[in-house]
Amino acid sequence: MKNNVGLTKKDVAKASWRWLFFHQSSHNYERMMGTGFAHSLSGSLEKLYANDKKGLAEALKRNLSFFNTEPQLGAIIPGISLALEETYANDPDFDPDIISSTKNALMGPLAGIGDSILVGTLNPILLSIGIGLSADGSPVGAIVFLLSWLLLVVPMKYYLFMKGYSLGLDAVKILMNEELKVKITTALTIVGLIVIGGVASMTVQAPIKFQYTSGDMVINIQAICDKIMPNLVPLLVAVASYLLVDRRGWSTNKLMLGILVFAAVMVGLGIM
Predict the structure, then answer these.
(1) What's the confidence (pLDDT) of residue 195?
(2) Which of 27, 235, 237, 247 is least enclosed by beta carbons within 10 angstroms?
(3) What are the TM regions of this chain, as residue ranges (predicted)?
């Protein structure tokens, strides 16, 4: 039984807000985000299948299947699914398997893109700014981080959900564009490196106290380093830390312990 029912912008907006607040609801290892996915679309599905209980049951079951992705960038997927569900509810010739296959095809790539761009790049950038603002113990950094994240993520999730709904299957072609992914990732990586470099110069303290004395001549090593490049030693410490993690595979705990031991030795020898 097919229905001649369309969704309004208000209906889609309600679904997007459900996704915003409930995408991780009842998270479990069997379906991961599947329950939250189905709940996000449930209100709209009830409208589409108001007079078709069997169709509603099938739609809910279809959207309760295993689903796992990065929830911010992945907000476009339930938007696309909702558009396809609306098409299927009104078109008897539409293949419902397209709905599930589209969702399954997109959740993996978007998880990789979202984790690298948002979790791996944007989040550290905002955290670095917050850490810099809270270096003196001020709570401003934590507040700035929280507000910045919400101001970026909430509109983005709403926009992507709505855009996914409006584009439908056309969104798949855009999202699978590898060139677009590379451009966005490169741009955010450059911004991230600039911000992290600035924060490192403000927060990493590694002054060289050792001075070479020969008669009346005193050579200040720290002054020489500053003339070569201001904050040269903090830069070297930051670069060395990065290389140990990236090239040598050090964990964060191992790196912190290594820095602690190195600092203790340098202070004990009177070098720093």
Answers:
(1) 66
(2) 247
(3) 110-134, 140-161, 182-208, 228-245, 252-271
Quote the crossing angle between the two packed helices 34-48 and 9-22, to the nearest 10°. Answer: 160
Burial letters for 128-152: b for 16+ Cβ neighbours within 10 Å, e otherwise? bbbbbbbeeeeeebeebbeebbeee
Among 58, 53, 40, CA closest to 97: 58
pLDDT tens, position by position, 157-193: 999 999 999 887 676 666 556 676 677 667 666 766 7
pLDDT band at 2 (very low <50, low <70, confident <90, very high): low
Dihedral Cα 142, 147, 149, 150, nearest 10 deg: 140
Return the top range by mean pLDDT from 34-43, 83-92, 193-202, 208-217.
34-43
Q: What confidence tier does 239 reach under pLDDT thresholds 50, 70, 90? A: confident
What string of DSSP letters covers 218-270? EEEHHHHHHHH-TTHHHHHHHHHHHHHHHTS---HHHHHHHHHHHHHHHHHTT
Q: Which residue has the tokens 């959900």?
A: 161
Q: Report the alpha-carbon angle 151-155-159, nearest 5.
A: 165
**DSSP line for 112-160:** HHHIIIIIIIIHHHHHHHHHHHTTTS-THHHHHHHHHHHHHHHHHHHHH
pTM for the full predicted model:
0.66
Measured distance between the N- and C-terminal CA atoms of the chain, rounded to whole angstroms: 79
What is the distance between the alpha carbons of residues 250 and 262, in angstroms, rounded to a whole number?
15
Q: Give the burial class of 261: count Cβ atoms within 10 A of its Cβ; 0-12 exposed, 13-18 middle, 19 or more buried.
A: exposed
